[in-house]
Amino acid sequence: MILLKIFVVPFLAVCGYAVEITVASSGGNVTVMLGYGAMEEEINHAGDGGLYAELIRNRAFQGSDLYPSSLDAWEAVNGAELALQSLADPLSLALPYSMNVKGNSSVIGFKNSGYWGIDVQAQTYTGSFWARGSYNGSFTAALETSAGDTLISVEIDSESVSDAWVQHNFTLTPTSPASDTDNVFSITFNAAEADGGALDFNLISLFPPTYSDRPNGMRKDLMEALAVYGTKFLRFPGGNNLEGETVGDRWIWNNTIGPLTSRPGRASTWDYEETDGLGLVEYMEWCDDLGIEPILAVWSGLALDETVVSESEIDIYVQEALDELEFLTGSVDTEYGALRAQYGHPDPWTIRYVEVGNEDYLNGGLDSYISYRFSAFYDAITEKYPEISIIASTIEMTLPGNANGDYHMYDTPDAFVEAFNQWDQYSNEHHYLLGELAATEYNGADVSQMYPWWSGSVGEAVYLLGAERNADKIIGATYAPLMCNIDSYQWTPNFIAYDADTAATAPSTSYYVYQLFNQHIITNTLPANSSTGFGPLYYVAGLDNSTDERIFKAAVYNSTGDVPIGLTFEGVDEGTTAQLTVRTAPEATSANEVGGANVVSTNTTTLTAGSGGMFSFSLPNLSVAVLVTSSSTA
Ligand SMILES: *[C@@H]1O[C@H](CO)[C@@H](O)[C@H](O)[C@H]1NC(C)=O
Ligand SMILES: *[C@@H]1O[C@H](CO)[C@@H](O)[C@H](O)[C@H]1NC(C)=O
Ligand SMILES: *[C@@H]1O[C@H](CO)[C@@H](O)[C@H](O)[C@H]1NC(C)=O
Ligand SMILES: *[C@@H]1O[C@H](CO)[C@@H](O)[C@H](O)[C@H]1NC(C)=O
Ligand SMILES: *[C@@H]1O[C@H](CO)[C@@H](O)[C@H](O)[C@H]1NC(C)=O
Ligand SMILES: *[C@@H]1O[C@H](CO)[C@@H](O)[C@H](O)[C@H]1NC(C)=O
Ligand SMILES: *[C@@H]1O[C@H](CO)[C@@H](O)[C@H](O)[C@H]1NC(C)=O
Ligand SMILES: *[C@@H]1O[C@H](CO)[C@@H](O)[C@H](O)[C@H]1NC(C)=O
Ligand SMILES: *[C@@H]1O[C@H](CO)[C@@H](O)[C@H](O)[C@H]1NC(C)=O
Ligand SMILES: *[C@@H]1O[C@H](CO)[C@@H](O)[C@H](O)[C@H]1NC(C)=O
Questions:
Q1: In a domain, 436, yes or no
Q2: Which of 195, 377, 429, 432 has the fewest C-beta atoms under 10 angstroms from its C-beta?
Q3: 180 and 230: one domain?
Q4: Ligand 10 within 6 A of 602 CB?
Q5: What is the 140 CA–ligand 3 centroid distance (Å)?
Q6: In this protein, which residues make up the domain named Alpha-L-arabinofuranosidase C-terminal (predicted)?
Q7: Whether residue 558 has its Cβ less than 6 Å from ligand 5
Q8: Quick one: how many helices (H) and strands (E) in the chain?
Q9: Which residues form the domain of 329?
Q10: Among all ligands shown, which has an atom nearest to the Cα of 471?
């Protein structure tokens, strides 16, 4: 996180005056901006326990040096003995640990508490587990309340044998929803009929219906929230998550593909072992399902423990990136393109943006990044894929050729407002991703907030308007982090917060700012002049060349009252109508909390241009607004 506070906008503490703004009909710039997107990484259980719809936590006892395998989230049923074991004959090399379940009483088993609860609705859940050991009886799989009341159960005939791992599939279809998410999933069996009273279990999985009905897919309500947001791109797989604590812990693309039995999982950067069930292919399917642009980040030779790969070894990792790109974009005649086809995707994907690393200006990485690491990736990828735009993970370097930069900012609302004209200072020779943005602390208070709050969101809005004014230089912008499971998180505030209860999901106040701005993408900026300059009203004007609609986006920050505005678009005549959407919240500190009501109000009105084609309206303190004219312009 770095702060650029060099360009300070003079603040005009004027009130009660009309701001008159005239927008020219031509003379602006062609935008390169995709719009507003998302940045996903395994922080705050954004993947496992979040977007990735798996309901069973610690399903395959995956572990690492940092987070050793354990029986976390599992509990015995009817006095069974549960033991973590590493068998000579594991389910797979990637999943070496399993759970031995042993008991004397007839019906024994185990249960899982999910990602801090399980949402049980009247819908079909798809489950599977692998068992090993001679057993000719049946299994019972069930969803139960934590108090032990069965919500739904199913009998599964055992196919389990002594010398092999056998998969058992089942479905559970409750006929009514549970009263809350304080539920568990259990499997029981008759120990008296099992050889030695014991069986081995691994990869115990349960999915609700997923977004777009994809097997191994994504949680519906969270993907729907991203669809409503209108996200335009996805930057993945991080973030710090890409980097890893050590070189060995980095995100390795080909450990995240193929059958779940061949994915070892990984020590995430964020204090837990991730399953990698949400892997490279699932990220691409996520982009396909939302129709958005992937921004693929590749590991650049820097780990968070400040290890830097030497110049003589960097080519190993450049090759990894090239292999990954071949997997995604190569024809089925290539080695890795053939592998992609084998995993169900014969058609190549298109990758237009590759980011080299993450925040390489931190952790002692900048010198080596500038001297050889960035250029090694840039040269090799550009040579093989000249159509791909390469993004450096910093703006603190001289960018070669047509390379682009990534800028991150975590700060106070005031700092975001003061940086309104940051991008005016840059030329459009290179383009910039605003890959991580968030107002994290109140002005003057050095404390990170739990949730985005309204004045912070308006501060961000001001900054985004400054970026849109320079949309010929900006690739896109995104709040970060994207998601937060409030039952297990490492960082606040976040864009969307949730827990196991799919009805309690809380898109933040910032979400409603980004979402409003994302609804109308400006394809060409238009010069606009005003009687007062910027502050407390900040704005951008432009047009959508597919409809010829004129678009005006604005935010008011720090005014002492309503700001009356007279807005004229050259070529838009008296009588033309426009839709004005204004978002506000009751208090500067208002926030959206999980399970709570949305504090952001939306007021949409239709305005008609008066004499001289002027639209007259006023915007309150701490508001964001978008005005769009009807498409008929003179
Ligand atoms: C089974 O019973 C034996 C003898 O009563 C006892 O020692 C053992 O702990 C029991 N095992 C389990 C898993 O209950
Ligand atoms: C269980 O389901 C998986 C995934 O659909 C499938 O690949 C597998 O063949 C099924 N196994 C059995 C034993 O039906
Ligand atoms: C299950 O049935 C098979 C085949 O009849 C038999 O070999 C095996 O011993 C049985 N297992 C148990 C635990 O009874
Ligand atoms: C992943 O790919 C690299 C080459 O890029 C190869 O050395 C490695 O063995 C592969 N790993 C797996 C698990 O296939
Ligand atoms: C907002 O107002 C406060 C108090 O009047 C002032 O300290 C602060 O600098 C202002 N912020 C901006 C970005 O104008
Ligand atoms: C609209 O603008 C975009 C750039 O934002 C440009 O790529 C496209 O060609 C333009 N379309 C028309 C019809 O002018
Ligand atoms: C277009 O870009 C030029 C050069 O960067 C800049 O001076 C001008 O203000 C921009 N125009 C608009 C309308 O943003
Ligand atoms: C803004 O530009 C228009 C012409 O496009 C001009 O008539 C008007 O005087 C200008 N207003 C200000 C405040 O500069
Ligand atoms: C306007 O918003 C600022 C925060 O930016 C707040 O300090 C101020 O009290 C607000 N003014 C009014 C009149 O509500
Ligand atoms: C919505 O905006 C209109 C026009 O600015 C205003 O008259 C009306 O009171 C607003 N409604 C609400 C609920 O704020």
A1: no
A2: 429
A3: no
A4: no
A5: 19
A6: 453-623
A7: yes
A8: 10, 33
A9: 32-52+214-399
A10: 7
CB of 22 shorter than 6 A to ligand 8: yes
Contacts of 338 (CB under 8 A, 6+ apart): 332
- Say how far apart CA 591 and CA 508 lie, in whole Å: 7
Nearest residue CA, atom 3 of ligand 10? 605
Q: What is the pLDDT of residues 142-190, one digit of tens each?
A: 999 999 999 999 999 999 999 999 999 999 999 999 999 999 999 999 9
Integer CA distances (angstroms), 170 to 174, 260, 278, in order? 13, 17, 22
Report the pLDDT averaged over residues 76-99.
98
- Which of 454, 559, 562 to mutate for ligand 9's pocket (most ligand atoms within 8 Å of CB)? 559
- For a mutational test of ligand 2's pocket, the pick from 167, 205, 216, i.e. the residue with the most ligand atoms closer than 8 A to its C-beta, is 167
Task: Using the atom order of ligand 2, give the atom closest to the CA of residue 159.
Answer: 13
Tell if the pTM clears 0.90, that is, is over it.
Answer: yes
Based on the fold, state whether residues 373 and 231 are members of the same structural domain. yes
CATH of the domain at 572: 2.60.40.1180
Question: With 70 as the cut, is the pLDDT of residue 8 above it?
Answer: no
| Pair type for strands 266-267 and 233-236 | unpaired
Question: Given pLDDT bands bounded at 50, 70 and 90, which one contains residue 633?
Answer: low
Pocket lining: 411 vs ligand 5, CB cutoff 6 Å: no
Does the structure show a pLDDT above 60 at 478? yes
Averaged pLDDT of the chain: 95
d(CA 46, CA 40): 7
Taking only the tens place, the pLDDT of each residue in 499-521 is: 999 999 999 999 999 999 999 99
Residue 425 dihedral angles phi and psi, to the nearest 5°: -80, -10
The CATH number of whichever domain residue 188 belongs to comes to 2.60.120.260
Residue 42 has pLDDT above 80, yes or no: yes
Residues contacting residue 398 through CB under 8 Å, at least 6 positions apart: none
Between the CA of 78 and the centroid of ligand 3 the distance, in Å, is: 24
Residues 195 and 337 in one domain: no
Domain assignment of residue 184, yes or no: yes
